[in-house]
Structure formats: structure tokens, C-alpha cells
## 1
Amino acid sequence: MTDGEGGSGIISPAEWRKPSIRFTLTALQWLLLVSLVVVGLGPIVWLAKSAITPTLDTIIHPVSLFPHGAAWSNLREAWSTVHVGLYFWNTVVIALGYWAAQIIVATTGGFALSVLRPRYAALINGLLLGTLFIPGVVLLVPLYIEIVQVPLVHTSLIDSYWAIWLPAGASAFNVVLMRRFFDNLPREIFEAARIDGAGPFRLFWSIVLPMSKPILGVVSIFAVLASWKDFLWPLLVLTNPNEQPLSVRLPSIESQTSLGVFLAAMFIACLVPIAGFLVFQRSFLRGGGLGGAIKG
Amino acid sequence: MLDQLREPAFTKRGLSRTSRVPRRSPITWVRGGGLSTLLFLAPLLFVFGAFSWYPIVRTVVMSLQHTNLVQPATWVGFANFKAVWHDPLFPVAVKNTLYFAGLALVFGYPIPLIAAVLMSEVRKRRGIYSALAYLPVVIPPVVAVLLWKFFYDASSTGVFNTVLGWIHLGPYPWLQSQQWAMPSLVLESTWANAGATVIIYLAALTGVQTELYEAASVDGAGILRKVWHVTLPQLRGILLVTLILQIIGTAQVFLEPYLFTSGGPANATLTVLLLIYNYAFGNSLGGDYGKATALSLMLAVFLAIFSLIYLRATRSWSTR
């Protein structure tokens, strides 16, 4: 990923010096950049512009570059009158629990399977890898019924955030990712710690976790993003509108809200993922490649 | 080398100090760290047991039962499977899902690859390219769909129809016509997902050995031939994986047909997952969970068999 001369090497320096090749490639890359700006950035810029444009103006001139008059009130109205503020905080709370569940399960489980390695680790690994191959749709209905009628304790978790948080922890991908990372930590350090008298809890908290910051960051980012994007499951288990996250509320408020306010609400829903992406770009793009690496 | 020799001995002893005791009684098990290991595994075992392994088994059981949560479940054998099989909507949903998956391959499979290869040769500010490509991936899918739904406005003042009107095309009916609805869904879905694949390819492209390109250059290969004979063969492992992942993903498409069209117009975008949803949750009088689980099992088994055949058929080619 080095910048400057070299690229990935498809084009040799000799070829790069030929004006025809240089011109064609530069033109193609500019074309790519322009289309990426239009396709990738365009809809979001349009949404940002329309969020502060009067409804009527958006309807009459949907593709004008500049709004005729600003309507900052759209954002205010969306946040308070349409209760987007409430749904926003619901989304935040759901995301925090989702993140905590995934991190706790993945770190403790990965640590036990990679470092402590009990005799039955192979069995658990097998079961985990098995779930990676089961499409999520298989779980939908039985999981829903399990939430409606929780076995053994005979209550219902409908309208409780636990109905989202607890199943969120069952991400085999995260556990496998974490286990692989722990596998590559130097074993000598564990042995040295053991000789110095550190038990498994000390080893986990003071040695393995601090050494795993990069992977913890990647898993955290993708946990929060996945929670923010989730739609179907919260739609099923959260029936009370006051508890629902943005993704579930947006389709329902569409018909009752004026277009400008609705677009402002959608823009608010995008803010956290986009800001997170801009801040943690490196982790996003590195972690995005992991998806292929672990399965390949 | 030394590490490799030492590692088995270390792992066999684990973190215990007393595991040299030959007999394993509960006390030596606790002293040997067995209990703390189990404590560390407790969150994983609880969460996966309750919310992954148990529901998987439950699906199989429920598909053979008649359940509506009110009356006790009764065993009905394969009646649910038969009912799904004879549902006139079943072939429609299968056909639509195959259509969606096929269109998604045509639109979505070559574009990320071409973009990634071009981007890998960008000399300056490559980060901007990958950031722009990845941006749609972080947009919440619900927002993306609702935004595109507005763009797809079928009147001549709709966003896409206005833009296409500049070059004297359209107006197109987009989501409102049986013929255009599915391609419209696929277009949005490709927009939303292509960036993730681009990033995977970019990561894989950095792994291609530059010596191979140099050797190809020495042998007189031009740029396109190097891409064809070096880059693509070197990426074939990841290309095969992304292909199967995309097929598995598109076979489970739900959000786009649910939010864009609710399966319409005239069931033109009714997918298998939407049918499962309708069986289980679409009826306000109570869901037919038996049929829903039967159909989801059929989909899962189909995908499993398909993946196995695919992996078997491409194994020799991908590891050569």
C-alpha cells in the first residue's frame, strides 16, 4: 500500500515512461475518481443538501446544486417533533450493548480456545465453524419464538434490549477472528507470565488484552456499524415505538412527515456511521480486507 | 523452529502446574485450571448455546410441527414442506431470487474487480479512492433504500428521471413496473455493497508478488496480458470466495424488496426471504411458523449443497 512510484507492479517503470500508457491510465483513473465521487459521495451530499432545503424546493427542483432558501428548521423539527433525538439515543444504547456483548464473548472465548486450550477445544471450534456456514435466515423464526417465550424462565424478552444484545454475542466470525489473532501472539510471553505466577485471569487482562488492541479496534468498529445497520431483528423484537432504533423508525415515520423533515431525519441517521468512518478510516479499510482473509 | 518444538509441550501442559498428576479427579481438574477455563468459555457457551446452536436444532424440529405459539405444537411430518412446495408463490419467489442473484452477479461482480485493479495502480492519494468506494457501505441500509426510493420516483421530476432527461432518456417507471422493479433493486444493492468487495480485492492485490509482473514484462507481456495472465490467476482464490459469498448473500436478500416494493408490483420482487417473512410475520392473525422454518431450511440446504458442489468443483482450480 505504498504511495508514490511503484503501484502494485502491474505497470513496469519502463511502461510508465511511455506517454501513451501514462495518458490512458491517468485518464482512466480520473474517470474512476469522477465516477466514485458521483456515485459514492453524490447521494450523501444530495441528502445533506436536501436535509436543509425546504420541502417544496426539493420536490420542484430535486437535482439543483444549491437550495433556494435554507430550512435549518428541518433538522430541529426532525430531532424534537418527530422524536428522532429519542430514536437516535435508542440506537446508541442498542449499539453499546451490542458492542459489549460481542467483545465479551469474542475475547473470553477466543482466549480460552487459543491460550488455555482445554481438551474439548476442538469440539467447540468445530461447532463454531459449523455456525459460520449456516445462513442467518435459519435462525430467524426459532430465535424470535425463543425471545417471545424464553425457555426455562418463561418470560418474554420482547421490547427488551436484551433481545438484541444477547443474540448479538453469538458471532462466530468474531470469535474465530479473535482466536486467530491470539494464536499469533508469542507463546514465550505467556510462559514467562506463568512462571512469574500469573493466573489465567491476570494473563487475560494484563497481557493478552493489551496486546490485542488492533483487533479489538477492528471488532469494535464493525460491531457498532453492524448494530447501527441492523433492521429486521429490531423490527421483530422491539414493538414499542419509543424503544425502537432509527433504522426501524425511519420507514414508519416516512408517511407522516414532510419530505424535508424526513430527509433531515435520514441525514441524522447517517451522521454517526459517516463520522466514525472518517475518523477510523484506516481500521475500516484494513478490517474490510479481513473479511476475505479469514474465509480465504 | 525452536518455537515449534516447544509449543506442543507448552500447550499440553496448558497453564497448569499440577497436570503431571496422572489421574484426573475433580480436584486436580480444578487445580489444573479446568474451572477457570470453563469460566472463560461460559459467555461463549451460553450465548452460542442459547442463540445459535439451540435455534438451529429448533428449526429442524419446528419444520416438522404445526406451531402457532398458542396451542401446543403437533407433529405433522413433512406437511409443511409439502405446503410450501405447492404454494403458488413458491416458484415465483425462487425465480425472483435467482433473477436477483443473477443480475447482482452481472452488475456487481466485475465492477469491483475492475475498479480495484485500476485503483491499485493509482500513484498518488490512493486513500481517497478507497474511502469514496467504501462510503456507501457505511450508510445504514434503511437510509440507503429510502433515499433511493425517492431517487426512483417514477414521475418525470424524479431525481434519476430528471438526470436521464438531460440526455433525453426516460422517464422510466423504475419500481412501479414489473419489468423494471427488480433491476432497480439490484442497482441499489450493488451500490450499497460493491465497496466492501473493492476493499477485499485491494487487500488481495497487495499480496501479488511483483516478481511475477517483472518476469511477465521480461517475457514481453503488455499491461492487459499481465492483468489477464498474472493478476487474475493470482486472485483466483479470493475471486472464488467472493463469488460464493455474494451468491449466498443475494439468495437471502430481504431489505430491498421489503422496503422498496413489499414484493410488488404483482409479486415481481417477492424473494424467498420475503416469503419466509410473510409466512411467519406477515399475517396479523398469527404466523405459520412451520411453513416459515420449512422454507428457511430448504433455502439453507440448497445453499449448503450448492456451496459444497461449488467448492468441490473449483478446488483443483483454486489451489493449483
## 2
Amino acid sequence: METNIQQTVADPKLQLAIYTATGRLKDKRSESVGPDALPQYQELRNRANLLKRHAIENLDLYLEQFAANVEAHGGKVIFCDDGTQVADFVLGLAKERGARLIVKSKSMTTEEIDLNERLEHHQLESVETDLGEYILQLAHERPYHIVAPALHKTRYDVADIFTRRLGVEREEAIEKQTMLARRVLREKFLSADIGITGANFLVADSGAVVVVENEGNARLSMSVPKIHIVIAGIEKVIPRAQDLAVFLKLLARSATGQPLSVYTSFVSGPRRPGEIDGPDEFYVVLLDNGRTKLLADPEKRQSLFCIRCGACLNACPVYRKIGGHNYPWIYSGPIGAIITPQFHGFSEAGWLPFASSLCGACGEVCPVKIEIPKVLLALRREVNAAKPKSWEYRAFQVWAWVMRHPRGYQFLSRLAPRGAMQSLLPVRNVPPLAPKSFRQLWAEREKAKQARHGA
Amino acid sequence: MSGRGRVSLFVTCVVDQLFPSAGLAMADVLEGLGYDVAFPPQQTCCGQPAFNSGYPNQAREVALQFLEVFRAAGHDADHIVVPSGSCTAMISHHFADLNLNPPRVWEFSQFLLEVARVEDVGARFDGVVTFHDSCHALRELHIKQGPRRLLGKVRGLTLKEMSIPEECCGFGGMFSVKFPEISQGMTRTKIASIVETGASAVVALDASCLMQLQGALRRDGHSVRTMHLAEVLASR
């Protein structure tokens, strides 16, 4: 982990790519939520936070309601504990229907369970149709960023990947690369047996699945193949269709600075008699994969409010230095730093909550007001409590004793060369300690003042 | 000559040990405005290093020391003024997380604007400076325009904003010890933005940010000075 971080930080080309791309998203976000563009922004954030809190605290209720409504529209709902169960379901269905090709739109939830790999093991081809995801699938990489998965790839990198993997002539112009991908993917859409999408919101009161995207590939994935499977985390459920008025105003703005994304699709079941498009079969897979574990703690529960806009990544000075691949899981940046240790435990991800200066930029931009720094602190406390006799714990014991005993503090502060004091200060690039501490200088100053007044 | 009442200084451990000049400058400015300035000498630290490192019990011990010191001799009835946004926020926002009830504390620039109600303290400083927004002052105390208004009244001073005033300096206490590459990477980005302004000094509300910036500026051979706001406002 450490060496990779060093490599990333020392790679000027990569640093520039990350800094520029996140900077652009960050600036666009802040313009789009500014007082002129969206005067009610803070009010919307408060609403979104309350709605998410309510939905998460009543998750069982709303999931039941959602499932009942999906089934009333002729769809099927499958609850899965983990990735294996999801893969088993998809594979079983594919086998029954004789399916060979799946088109997939961008979904962090399916990345989370390595769905493509699981399917490929069983000779089921699963093609990513979001351009960034497609590039990464060809390059055999995982997403670098929640919203902009191929953010670290330049067009020259993409040219290399396309030439190598598609056997085409090298093409460095972005428009031409896009057209090339479009040609390949269009064929896939037309011959696919199953379309898999994620979901941005699951609306309980109507059974609707809402998918937000810019490329139109999700809409094709859900409407061209005969079978549409939605795979979504259980935390995506919101109570009412009218709540979308809050979330849709925040999501695209926070993600890319767009007032709305190019496509917002609402689907709630298979094609009905008389409708011209839509699938014959419609399934919603609701994935737990550890989410219910997070419900127990009232403070950390808010980690499940996340709507995956990626704004915290763009705002985070740590993400902007180390990029997405140095995080142990596909969720990177501040949100990754709080959810990964909760999903995967401290042995793999216990370092993440400490890899933050607690600058608070993440919490400031979060559209659903997750108090990320607060959760980071809670996790730091837990990680420390799990190793009660560390050197650091002992050092803080000594430190606290000194700070609790002014005489000890003053004694140490007078020691020349004051190295002992230096070791107690929470600092690294320390300039040499001042020759005299404030308290010494203050005492001298007071004495001089008294002498003046006395004279 | 006084008559505006007493203020008590909480100078913070970092200013006490590393930047005493910032503490003295703060006292000078306050006395210049007619306040009686007291310094309770038993004070040490607010507990923030332990709190932010995930050691609440140790933080609470030290926070108790703070409370006892300022309760003694009725200092908690005074205005307590602090030359640091992050220590102020620790006391005002996070003592509650330790089940402690803090007295009202004022970050230095907040005190000048909201209690003393002055913008012009009679300072003169010739040169171009740039201002770094310390994270906790900005995001927890919501201090943004105040220090700029104070700097705007300093004779001879020109404030030139850097491109990323709100980006973290990279310090973050133990973070800079545990993740030096990331921390220093952040600092390099920040100082590039500072140097780009051509300012002769970078001004901030927190000595710890200044220390982080000063280390990197010196190492890279830049002549930009680091100054606490109080030092600028005490210049004549």
C-alpha cells in the first residue's frame, strides 16, 4: 500500500490527470450549487439528509413496500445476502433462458461484488457499456472514481488500450474513440439477451427504479434486451416519488455540476400490453452484502445515506494526491474511507480513517450531509480500542499526564535543548522550538511592566 | 487607560512552544484596544491532538485541565481569546463530544470583529500578503471574510488571494506523521499556489498550518514568510 501511494504521488503525469479532472468536477459542482444557480441548496441538503435518515431507519418497511409495488407491476424482487447469491441468480436465469450475452450499464454495486468476473467464469459474456467502464473492462482495471471511472486515463492511454484489445488502428482523437466504442457496443446491445443496470433510487411508494446517466447506455440496457435485471444496494430505497424532487436536484449537480443528467429513466416493471418497448421480464435484485451490519450504530449508520455522487472525492485533498487505486476497495475517497473499514474490517482497511487531515472538505460538499469527519473520528477510536497496548496509546498516556500537570509541562518546556518537549508536540516538520516559550516571555514582559509602573 | 474589561488568553501549546511571537502580538493588539489581558499560567493544551488521533479518554483529561484553569480566578467569565481556529473549534464544538460543557471561547479574529467590534486596529504592514483559510476556522467556525476585512484595514498592505485559499495545508496533526508522502504532497500543492501570488508573506489564523507551510517553503528555498494574523495586526 505504502509504496503504491509513493509511486502515485511521485508520478507527475498521473498527478496532473487526477488534479485536473477532479478540479474540473469540483469547480462545476460549486458553480451549480452557488447562491445564484440554486438558492435553496442548503435547504435541499437538509431535506435530503432527513429523508435518507428516515428511509434508513425504516428500511424494512420501505423495502417491503417497494418489493410489493414491483411485483404488482409484474416484476420480481430477489433479496441477496452477498455477491455469490447474486451471481447464482443471474447464472441460473441465464441458463434457463439460454442467454449468452449480457450488456451492463455502470453500477458500483455490481463492481462491489465482481459480477463480471463471476459471470465470465461461467462463459457468460458481460459487456460494460458506459464508455469509461468499457475502457476499464478492456484494460482489466477497476474504477478509479465513483462517477468518472476512467478519470486517470488520458486519450493516449485509451488509444493504447483500444489498439491492443480491439485490434483496431491507433486513434487518438476522443470523438473518434467514442465513435469506435459506440460501433462495437451498438452490436452488443442488439444481440444481448440480458441487460443489467444499477439503480440510483428505488421508490417505495411506486415501485419505480430510477437510473441517472449521461450516455444513454443504461436506457438501452434496460429497454433492448428481453430481460432487465436491476442490481441495487438495499440502502437505495426512498419513501416517495415526490422525494425525487429533492434528490435529483442534488445528485447531478454534486456529481458533475449538471442541473440534471442527460437521461433520467424511471422503470417499474416489464413491458405491458400495448407498450412498444421494454423487456419481457423485469427483476430487481436487492443486495445486502454487509449493509445491514452498518445499521446498528446510530452515528455510523449515516454512512448508508450516500447517493454515490463522488463530490467528496473531488473535494478531498488526499484522494487528489493518491487517486482511486490506492484504496483497498472500489469505493475510494472519503466515502470509501468510512465504509470500507465498516464492510471489510480493520485488518484490511483500518489505516483508512487515519489517512485524513480532517480538513472537512468532504462533509462540506456532501449533498446528503453525511458527517464524514465525525465518522472518521469514531472509526479512529474503534481502531485504537482494538489495540489497547500500542506504542501510540502509551505515548498519548504520557502526553496526557504531562498536559494535565502544568508543572511537568513547564519543567519540560524549560529543558534545553527542549527535545523532550518537541517530542510531545503533535508535529513533524517542526521548526526549532522557539528559544523561549510564550509563558517565559510573558512572565518577563509582566515583570518589566510592573517595574515601569513601580518606578 | 483600559476600561474595556478583562480578556484571558488561551495561547495553545503550539504557540506557547513554537510561535510565542504570535501570542505576544495577540496580547499587544488586545491591550492596544484597551483590554486588560490575563494569561492563566497553568494552561497547557486543549486536548485536540488526542481527540483527533482517536484517544478520547486522554483528550478528556487534558480538556479537564483547560476547564479547571479557566474556571479558577473566574477566567471563564472573561472573554477567552485563542490564536487558533482549530483549538477554538475543539473547545466550542468537540468538548461536548467528551461530555464537557465549555466556556465561550473566541478565535482571535472573531473576537476583534464580534466582541471588540473593530476592523481597523491601527496596524501598518508594507507589502503584498496572501491569506490561507485554516480548515477548522473555515468549516467549523465559518470564518471566511472576517480576517480579510481586518487585513483590508492594514495600512500599506495589499491582499492577493491565492488560487486555492481553502485547500488544506497538509498538516492534520498525526496525519502528517503517519502519511508523510500524502501530507507533503498536499503542502507542495498549497505552496505552489502561495508562491504564484508573488506575496511576501502568507497569513493564517493557525500556527500549526503556518508551521507546516514554513517547513515546506524553507525546504524549497522560497523567501515567503509565514505570519499569524496577530503578527500582521500588531505591526506598526
## 3
Amino acid sequence: MGSVSNYSADAQNRYRVWLTDKNEVDFDPFSYFEAKAIERRLVNNISLCDQTDFPVSEEYIRVISEIADSISFVSRWFNFIGVYVSSEDQLKNLKSLDFVREIEMVEPVTMTLAMADDIDPYISIPGKDLLDKQLTRMGGNLFIEENIHGKGIRIAVFDGGFPWVDTHPAFEHIRKENRIVATYNFTAKKVNVYLGNKHGAMTLACIGGRYADLNIGLATEAEFLLAKTEVQGEPFSEEENWLAAAEWADKNGANIISSSLGYERHRYFTYQMDGKTSLVVKAANMAARKGILVVNAAGNQGGVNDKWKYIITPADGDSVLTIGGVNPETDYHMGYSSFGPTADKRMKPNVSAYSHIVTVNKNGVKPADGTSFATPLVAGFAACALQTNKSLKTMELFKEIEKSGHLYPYFDYAHGFGIPQASHFLKKENTVPARSFEFNLDSNSLTIRVKPEIINNQNWLADNGLLYYHLEDENGVLIEYYVIKVETPEVLKLNLGTYRKGDNLTTLKYKKGYKLMVWYHGFVDSYVF
Amino acid sequence: MFFVTKLKVMKRKLLLFGLLAVLINMSYSQKILFQEHLKDYSIPGTKGQGLKSYKHGYFGIGFILPLPDTTIAIMMPASYNYTLGLRLKRKITHTFSVGMDYNLNVSRFRFKQTADKVVPDTIMHKKQTNIFYAASAGVYGRITYGRHGNYIGKYVDIGIKGDWYFAGRLSTTDKKDGQKSVNYTWGMKQFQPLNGHAFLRMGLYRYAIDFSYRLLSMYKPAYYVKELPPFSVGVEVGFFK
């Protein structure tokens, strides 16, 4: 955190005043929380009297408001007060208060809406097919067949605005049943969110929109909390809005937060994507601790010309379900989708979904691109998954969604565990995938050969035929990973030089303790060197 | 004859060997659709807008500020300079950096044609312009304001540069009997080949406002009694995203 002494306060600036304690405050969870918030806490074994939920001392707020020009935001979770001040004297006075722990200057920075600028020119799937694919690839049709539509699950959507949501036919079913439970515009401190950036309407549609009797997202019967946290366009905004919206979502009983937003190089370095540094990731992790599943976009910084490449924050949070993008045409990584791991080498993204999708536009639907849209697809999926078993604790749901990934237990830093599958939650995976390949080690090479049973299947080459493999070190950190197209029975031959199993040859690429993990046709196997 | 047969056999062998090599290769063929190597990007970088070192190109245009009482009267905005350069930045702390500028620049002074004009001559022309071509190298210190990541952000630069004026030209345009005539004089002896500037630059991301002050007189004192205006103010655009 920056020290206030580095900054001048000639103009009106925004600061966070961090407080020392919450002494002498009263808190009644039953009057503060919505019934759903209490229910969620009980399911997750979370105390109803957690000190982080206690209000900030009214006395402290009063004293600070007398010194500062105005108060912008008060955070219960982190016990700070956002203020505007315009003179050094005000800062000195604030600093001299014995209940002030620290004062941090807040800089306005760009928050990225994770919507890609350009539609991938290589994609040629017609709209209706694409609309169908974006749900069936996750096995969404199975949820639909079982009449699971996220009923009773409350999803908070944070975005730059929700124009059209009050008029567009894709949201009519939600409006009719009054399932937009609450709205709040944190940028203007007003209730109206049906304005601003269309991005929010587009992401909401991917969660529970329905157009011309076709589902755009899976959670068409969920309830929604809509929070406008960003200003128009590529905005200058604050991480505080995200935190304020998270506290609001918690109070109002959200089960899931869907956030297609994030910060990157304007404020941070890639080495700070460690899940601990930014305020927004602390807020996201805190929301998870309160029992909310936080689903966040990985970002669109993965392109070859992009200087950032990594996931953005808060996607770096260990309790944040980070969503990568998959190209529906190829069924593997979409070029722009940001890469993991986190700076401290944790796997990210956690799972993936199609990021070239169909969603609403002003007068109908149209294709759009970005991990912004893969994220709400998974948020809708998560609502359906939770509906199948409402007793699941949040982090259990998180783990089960990971396990439902089509590549699981294989993973890499572009796809995570792959695309989540509804069959996992509907217990329809009765068959263990058949062994589809085997390892053959000879004197100086390791060969991966597809099993004859697979080859004898006439469609084996017609299928997607993708084989994933990665090489991980003894700590489970990936060194490299590949997706290859299987075109011959002998898929892969790794030259091991003079290697013998058990050798500890530090000069070789395949060292002792390293692991080669392979996924093919649903079957995963590893070879430990 | 024997030699020809042996050559044919060799050719066949080579052909077979080549075919075999292709077949062996095919049996292990793999079409890599996608690959990532962690070592390529997991090491914290040292080159970047907010990292240890960074360099970028830039283009700037500045306008000469006339100081009619003390310097030669020039016309605005026809008197200007433009610069194409390379800037190097090295981070010392998160807020302080130092760097070097290398650039090529052209300065153009359009003289006002007034009755009291004495420089570069006393003759009244339709237009009279002195153009100087220079290569410059400079050093600067930079203070970056506010929290920022791998991003240029908001900054103030203060620096000095040395200029080598390697060419100069005086052009005069006249109109006589409806006929336009332009006369160029190259290789002027009047200007000083070595000079210097102090500058102050205020930047936001790729855009900057540049204030510049020339430290020495443009002309050798022996030639002219008055001097060209030393101040200029301009804008600059960096070539980076």
C-alpha cells in the first residue's frame, strides 16, 4: 500500500482511510442480511457474527466526515472509509486520529471489460448453431432435459451497465417473474442500472437470457442482482466499486458473482498477479469466504502481440473460479484468452467455455467475443449445478465444477481442467473412459501410441482427434504443454537421448521426478520419469 | 557404361532411403495445434513501460515562441520544429527514472518581412525562411506520478540535450512581374554547429507537452546583432501501445 506522504493533495483526491478496530458497534445479522444470505452462511458453516460483517463505527465515520470533504464508500469487510480530501491539512488531521491505521491514495485506473475488440475472422459457425453449441458443449442440454434452470439460485452480475435489460425480449421471462431482485448503480449511487455499457446486458444474457424460445444461457430461472460498477466505455473506475458491490451482493443473498472485469498493467505488474496484492482480489477472496462462488473472466490479454499475456486480477484469486476461452471452431484455446499460471505458479484458469458466442444486441442477438462471455456461461452452469445439490458448500461446488471439466484430471494453463460438463452433476458418467493410448519406452525414446480399439473405430480420425499433453516438474508446475491433432496411430515420440528410467540427468529436458500427463478421448494417464 | 549403371543404383538407393525416411517420419507425425513453454514468459520481465528498461520511438512537433523585443521577429505558426527520435528509459525507483534521447530534428524559422528587418538581410522578400537540420542526444530525469503498473503513466521529465547542426539553408521567395522565384542558400557559415537545449516534458501515457529552451545563440555573434527566439512549446506522441 502506498504511503500518503508520497502524494500532494492540492486538488481533490480520493483516499482510503484504514481503521484500527470496530469497537463498540452493534450488529444484528437477522436485520442486516437477506434470508438467502443467512441460508447461504448456514450451508457453508459460516458464523453469522463474523467481525468482518460488523458495521464500521458510526463514531469513526462521523469524525472522519467532519475532516474530509466527503465520504465515497465505507467497507465493512476491510474496515476502511473512502474519502475525498483536498488539502494536506486534512490528510494530517486524518492521520493524527488514533483509530486510523493507514491512509492510502486511490488512483483512477482503467478496468478492463473482458470483451475482445474483434471477432475472430476464422469463425464461420452460423448464429443458431453457435447458440446451440455454447450450451451443449457444457452438456447444458442435459440440465434442460432434467428441467434444471438455476431455480432458487441468486446470481449477482457486476458490469458496466445493463441497457436493454428492462426492455429486450431476451429478458422478458426474468422481468415477468420479478427475478431481478435488486439493482444498484455504484458509480452514481442510484438504483437505476438500465443504462451505460451494453456489456452487462450481453453478459447477463449469457447467464439466463432466452430469445425466440432458445436459451442463450443455462440459468433461465435464476434470480439476479445487477450491480453497475463501471462507467461507460473503457472506464476509469475503482476497485472499491467491485468491493462495494460484493458486500451488497453478500447482504442480498447472492450465491454466485459473475464478473467479466479485471485490472491489468495500468495498475499492476504481472508478478503482482499473486492473488494477494490487489484490493479487488482481496474482495473476491473475501466474497468466497462468505460463501459466494466468484466466477471471473481470465481476460483477453493472451494474444501473441499482447504484452501482458497473463490472467488479470481478480482472476488471480485462489478462491476465484477463473474462466478461460475456447474457440468453438477448433475446440481448444481461443487465441486471445489470457494464460495462467498466477505469479505464484497456481493453475489458472480453472475451467473454460466457449468465448465466441451468441448474445443479445440492441434488436436481437449477434455473435460476440471475449472471456467476458465464457464467464457468464459458466456462472449459469454453476447455478444449475448448485440446483442439483443445494447442500454443496461453495468451495465444494468450486471443486466439483473443476472435476466436471472435460479434461479433468488433466490440466494446463490455457484451458484449466477444460469445459465443465453437466453429466458430472447429473451422475450420468457411468462408464470409466476406456484406455485410448499407451506409453512405450525403448532405449532412447518414449512413444505414445493410440490403442487399436480406437483405430478400429472408423470415426477415430473424423472426431476432433485432439490430444493434450503437458510436462510438469516435481512440484507440479507445468514446464510446457501442447495440443496436437492425432493423425497417425503413433502419435508422439519424445527423444530421451541416453535416458534410462530412474536416471537423474540434470542436463536432460525430461528429468527424474518430472511427469508427462496425456489426455486423449477422455482417458488420462501419466508417465513419471 | 559400368559407371552409369552404378550411378543408377545409387540414385535408386537414395530414392528408397529418402522414401523410408519420409515414412518413418510420417509414422510419428504430429500436427501441433497449440503449444506453450513456461520459460518463455514466467520469468519476471525486465523490459517494459514500467519495468527496468524501456525504449520507444517518438515524433514531436514544436512551435517557436516569438520574443519580438529581444530576438529576431519571426512568423507564427510558420516557425516550428519537428523531431523524430528514440527514447531510452531506465527505472531507478518506482517513481524515478533516468533516460536518454536520440533524435533528428528540423527547425524552421520564417522571418517577418518588416521595414526594420536586419537579419539575415535588410531586403524585403515575399518569404524568407531559415531551416536547420540537427542530430541531438540528451539525458533526462523522470518523475512518474501516482500508482502505476507496467505502464508509462503520468510523468514529468527534465533534461538537457546537445545538438549538432549539420546543415542549414536559407530560402527566399520573391515575386517579380507575376513570376515567382525561389532562391536557396546552403552551407551557411553564420550558424553555430554545436548547440544545446534544456527541456521540460509533461506526459500522460504516449502523449506529452514539451517545453524547450535553446542554451546558445543560433548564429555566430560576429554575424548578426540579434538572435533567433530560443523558446518552443510542442506536443509529442510516443510510438508504443
## 4
Amino acid sequence: MIGNIAVGLYGIPVPPVTNSFDSIATVTVGAGGQSSISFTSIPSTYKHLQIRGFAKNAQTTYAGDNMQIRFNGDSATNYSFHYIEGYSTNLVRALGSGTQTVALGLHNALTGSQAGYSNVFSAFVIDILDYASTSKNKTVKTLGGFDSNGDGNIQLASGAWYNSTTAINQIVITDETSSNFVQYSSFALYGIKDS
Amino acid sequence: MAATYEPIATQTLGSATGSVTFSSIPSTYTDLILIFNGGADGSGINICARFNSDTGTNYSTTRLMGNGTTATSDRVTSGSMIYGTVLSNATLNSNAIFQINNYSNTTTYKTCLIRTNATEVRLSATVSLWRNTAAISTIVLSPEFTGNFTSGSTFTLYGIKAA
């Protein structure tokens, strides 16, 4: 190596910029766990939404579980999803379906609570594009996964909600097995402006 | 609504450099995002990172990669750094975005997501674990702690604070 650069954060401050990324609401799960995460009364004043999270569930059967999303309380088969995931040495899988009752948050990439997974949480970033449009269907993309030093799953997922006329004003996130999200799981909803 | 996504610090390399360090990271944000744009002086070298100067074998990584022909995945257990993927060689045609959610909590291990794109080589999505419950206050980036970042590479650290 030729040399190293160290950046002291307080020594080289970056000037503030005009911000277009707002924190709307956050849910942090307490000691008792929580079966679903809800964001309601979402204002339609942003261009896009982003959910940034850190979570695991309480089930002890699977190393990774599915995290699901519904919009505006719609539980009908108005969703689809596809994903590609890597989960071991040369184990790549791509699956999907066009008729679902949920959009996909994570597939097999929400950390469970088996022995050996203590303190291991999934991280994810979910983007919901043009969520307030009343003229086109809503699309979702996710980057997320977990690693537990010997097991893990990283994936890119996409989803759609086939409702072109209604702005998204409610988001509910659940685990596929109806397992609780455990303490310290957190879900933060942000709004991204376009002007 | 509370505006967030603030730039914390940035660095542009004036010469080939082995590592870049962001230190004294405040614990006042919820998530960190670190954006790299540049390359490495050498072929087949991955962008890597360590937290809080920990050089022990306390890191692990699961990766999904595509090289233009095939999709593959791999895993590193008990490694001494976290891995993105191979950077472009002696050009500035690579980028990587690190997402470090809940970096300042002192209860859980830390999980980091990385999306790396090296135009001439491959792209990847990565999830890594640092088996330590300490808040992350220092991030060191390097081409595997053996190579150099190409002159002109840029690094910017952002903080996001939830309401």
C-alpha cells in the first residue's frame, strides 16, 4: 500500500445541504414483541417512500423467514413478486409469482431466533416508487438479508400492487408464519421529495 | 416531518491510497450510508471494510454476484473484514454503496448491506455481519487491506436519523 487517508469527521465538516429526505414515522419493537408493523395516514406529499429496517422474528423453525407487505388493507390477490437470492457457496435462486396476496419484503432473509442466531438481525431497504400516483400501479424494490457467520441470505426483490387509482396511505408488514418481530426490531418510514 | 440524510464527511483521493478511514462517527443517527466511486490499482481486488479498527476474525459475508455470464454466490465465515466485490482495475468505473442500519445500537451485532458495481468486471449484492455489539464509530475501507484505491476515488459518509 502506498499510503492511508484518515478523515476526522469533526475536522473536515461537510456543509449542510437542502434536504429532500424526511423521516415520517418509526416503529421500534419492545420487549413483548409485535406481530405486525403498521404505518397509517401516510401523507401523499412525497414522490417516493423508503422503509429502512433492522429486524428478526421469534420463530425457531427456519433460519430465514419471509417478510410480507400489504397496502391499504388489501388482502386480495392483487400483488406479485420476484426475487433473486444468494444463500451459500454457488447457491443462487430466482423465483417469483404473478398472483399473490402480499408484496414481498424479504424471502427467506428475515432472521429467525434459532440457537446460534442470537444478536443477528436482518437489514433491509425497501423503496416504494410513485406511491401516491392515482394513474399507475405501485412497484416496490428491496435489498436485504442477514448473515450469521455460517448461514445467510442476500437478495434483491421486486413487488407490485396492482392498483392504479389509489395512493398508498397505509403499509402493514408481517411475518409469513405470523411470528412476532422481536425486541429491538425497528422499521423507519421516510419520504423522498421531488421538488 | 424531520428532514434527514445528512452528509457527514467526504474524501477525494489525490493519489493512490491503501485505506480511507472515517473516525469519530457520531452515534446520533439511525443508519449510515457510505458511497464510494472509483477503482483499485490491481485486478481482482475486492472493496472491503473493518469497523472500530477490529482486525480479528469477527466478520462474515454472504454474496450474490453476476459477471455478465453467470450468477454465483459465496460465503466468507470468520473473516477479518467484510467484502464487497471486485473493483475496476486502475479506472474510476466502480461504485459501492454501504448501508449500515442501526449502527449505533449497543445490544445487537451489526449487519451491513453492500451493493457494488464494477462496470468492466461484475456486480454484487452483499450482506455482512460484524459480531460485536459496540456502536460503530470508525469505518476503514480498503482494497482487501493489501491494494490501493485509484487516485480520484471519492468516499462520502451520510447519516440518516429516524423520527
